[in-house]
Design goal:
Number of domains: 1
Largest sheet: 7 strands, parallel
Number of strands: 7
Strand content: 15-25%
Strand order of the largest sheet: 3-4-2-5-6-1-7
Structural class: alpha/beta
CATH class: Alpha Beta
Shape: globular
Number of helices: 3
Order of helices and strands: EHEHEEEEHE
CATH topology: Rossmann fold
């Protein structure tokens, strides 16, 4: 079973949520983790893609939007709306409103929530599923 952490931000800003995600993604990448970031739409994928290039001067996080065919180069972060391919199931960042598919195969899941009621309600549903599976969940209020 995966380690699951919830990060609950004080802000309702989507920008703040994605900025926080960029910082955690950078940390995971610098620690040798080639993670998958689950999002709800092509627009969200594009927005996070843009932010990963610009969120911090000097930062470099190789990444691409996943469209169904795993890339040949595995040393990068994938962003997408589909199930994480096998080589990217180690660390899953969930910025979507859904439960990650095949979540039980991940080593670690990071749920990043803003202070929006809709986002928090979806997060509570996922929290319940994880708890019912017997997972100890870490919650961080930022």
């Amino acid at each position: 079973m995966p380690d699951v952490s919830f990060y609950v931000l004080n802000s309702e800003s989507l920008y703040d949520r994605y900025f926080f995600a960029c910082r955690l993604i950078e940390k995971a990448y610098n620690n040798g983790k080639f993670c998958y970031v689950l999002l709800d739409s092509v627009e969200q994928c594009q927005r996070l893609d843009d932010m990963l290039w610009t969120f911090r001067a000097g930062s470099f996080i190789p990444h691409q939007i996943f469209t169904g065919t795993p890339p040949e180069i595995t040393s990068q972060v994938l962003l997408g709306m589909l199930d994480a391919p096998p080589d990217w199931q180690n660390v899953v960042f969930n910025l979507s409103s859904q439960m990650p598919q095949n979540w039980q195969y991940a080593e670690r899941i990071l749920e990043i929530l803003d202070n929006n009621e809709t986002t928090k309600a979806a997060g509570r549903q996922r929290y319940t599923v994880y708890k019912q599976a017997g997972i100890d969940i870490a919650t961080h209020k930022m």
